Amino acid sequence: MNMNWRFFVALFGLAGMAGAALLLSDSARDQEHQWIKVALAAEEQTGQSSGPPPLVIDKEAPLLLDEPAEADEACCAETAQASADNTACFVCHANYQEETLASEHAKARVGCVDCHGESYPHRNDENNITPPDIIYPRDRIDQSCQKCHATHDVPAARVIALWLKRCPAKTDPKTIVCTDCHGEHRLRIRTVRWDKKTWKLIPRRQDSGE
């Protein structure tokens, strides 16, 4: 019996507190409404608003989202022209991001596609058996490089030093090509190989590993 009595007392106490809170809330709301009425009456008498100034929209002004600031445009243009975009190729050929020949050409805004073509079938072939649009047999390397690099003004001593360092087995100067000295533009490990003159896939059993 005592437990029931205590329960009802507690219940009525909570109900009373909730009612008091509601009364206080209504009182505060009435007070706020009264302040708003006073402020509005004062504005009507003085003709001055105590709130922020009215919003003025200039319909002739350009939208900033549509036209970036000149500084932003210059920055974006400079970034876009800073280097060639080889990201599509780096999805598979990540090793060429730091390779000298590819990175130096990219700085000059000459990308992979400038030498190997857009190569969409090659890029989209998940089996990796489709060659790039343009590939280079050894006897075409020099003439391809000379399309952009018409002259070779490197001192002879440096040429000989690189020759002895990178391809000492080649004793006949006629057998040396540009990529023997410039860059490391060959895959050390290859899962597929194509005949660079016929574009045909070389079966693995015939792959000499060259």
Low-pLDDT stretches are 206-210
What is the overall shape? elongated
Number of strands: 0
Helix content: 40-55%
The major β-sheet equals: none
* Arithmetic mean of pLDDT: 76
Distance between the termini: 99 Å
Instruction: Note the beta-strand portion.
Output: under 5%
- Radius of gyration from CA coordinates: 39 Å
Please tally the helical runs, counting DSSP H or I stretches of 4 or more residues.
Answer: 9
The ordered string of helix (H) and strand (E) elements is: HHHHHHHHH
Structural class: mainly alpha
Structure keywords:
9 helices, 210 residues, 49% helix, disordered C terminus, mainly alpha, single chain, elongated
In brief:
With 210 residues, the protein is mostly helical. It has helices spanning 2-46, 70-82, 87-90, 100-107, 112-116, 120-124, 138-145, 156-166, 178-181.
How would you explain this protein's 3D organization?
This protein is mainly α and 210 residues long. Helices cover 49% and strands 0% of the residues. It has a domain at 78-202. The chain has 9 helices and no strands. Residues 206-210 have low confidence and may be disordered.
